[in-house]
Structures are given as structure tokens and as C-alpha cells.
Amino acid sequence: MYDLHRADTVALGGVLKELFAARGIVATHVWPSPDLLTHWQEEGLLLSQTCGYPLVTQLDKVQTVGCFHYQAPGCEGIGYCSFLVARAEESGKTLVDFRGQRAVCNAIESQSGYNALRKMVASLSGGQRFFASVEFSGSHRQSLVALQQDRADIAAIDCVTWALLQRHQPDLLEGLTIIGQSPLTPGLPLITSASTSADNVALLREALQQLVSDAQYQQVCAAALIGGFAAVTREDYALLLEWRDEAAKHGVVDL
């Protein structure tokens, strides 16, 4: 999900294949089609990364493997947040100042770009529509472009994506500023097919723990901002449904 620098993703995939092979698991590194929902539900899926919100709303059959600890501002353990981003001239404002303005989100099924923003405006909305309009851009990068081009006024951006863009595509952050951030939630979960055996799930977790622990993989992990790993369960992501339901109680079902 954080494939912002292809060479780093390829290197990480190569190391994972080696670690799995050492445990008798043969894996092939594939690039999924844009239809990620289908990819995540493939019978032969060994390991992939999804977003927490689709996990709890659409992916009831997959198994959770774990979650990386990311080394980026806005992260703590497995937790991460969304940064509220606006144009630099809006510096000093807070979310309430964007009532009646234009929001842009990467996708309606996104935790960081949509559910987090919905949770934050819910208590401010008074049961009324908070934004004048909401555009769906297709990606966090395109949401940032929409802000730069004055097609939108505010967006919620995954804090790990922000850190990777600072490193690899800083031009996408030019003229933009962070005006707030969401509370922490568990980060993007690593998943496997429902048909993956319990023994192999345990081996996947063992391999991922070795990835973040062995000095020889430190460079590969640092390139991807990975600083640790923890096993997680589906129940760890129940908070995301609580955010959705809390917003609904405030009369906010859609942004």
C-alpha cells in the first residue's frame, strides 16, 4: 500500500520471498491490478497489505497476520494517524474553519482519507453537511494535487504516505501545510487468505519478526520506514467501526 518508490518495494518483496523460502513457503511477488478488493480476496493470497476500513467492512473472510510499526511522524507502535492538510496560506486554521469548504478524499473506503475525516467533522457538524463538496481523487497523491491546484481546500492524508513523499516526491507537498491530525488507529494490516493454514500464518509472523529484527535487513526496512512488527487480530480494528457509528449518531453518514 506504500509503493511510493518502486525499487524499495521490490527490495522488500525480495527479502520476504527469501525469508518465506527459508521456512518452506514458496512465494511469488506479483503487482495486483487496480481492483484491490478482488486481489485481497484471492484464494492463493499469501501476504498482502490492505487498509483497516475495508478489512472490517468488506473483507470478512481474510485472516490478519500483523501490522508494521512505521517510523514516521504521527506513528506510535502499530498506530498511525491522518494529517489534515491544506494550502500554506491556511496555516493557523483548524478543522472547524473549513466548514462549507471543499474536501478531497482518496476513496470512500479509505480509513486515513475518509473515515478519519468523517469522525473528526462529526462532532462539529451539528447534524448538518459540513463540507460544501467532496471530491474523490483516487489516491493520496492526487488529493495533494487537487489542493495545490485549488480544486479542494482540505484533505486527510496518511501520515506514512506524507513521510514517504517528503523523501521521494517533495514537489507534491510544496505550498501545503498540516493544520491538524486525527487520533491514532491501528495501521494498515497485513493479511492472508482464509485458506492459509494456521501453521503457515505462524511462519509468516515468524518471518516478519525476523525481517524487523535482523541487522542484515535494517536498510531494506529503513527505506520503507518499517521499524517493527506485531501480530494483530481483526478485533484490533473494531475501533474503525466505532468511528463510523459515532459519526452516524451525529447524523454524519457521508461527508
UniProtKB/TrEMBL annotation:
Name by which UniProt lists this protein: PhnD/SsuA/transferrin family substrate-binding protein
Any Pfam family hit: Phosphonate-bd
Gene3D superfamilies to which the protein is assigned, alphabetical: Periplasmic binding protein-like II
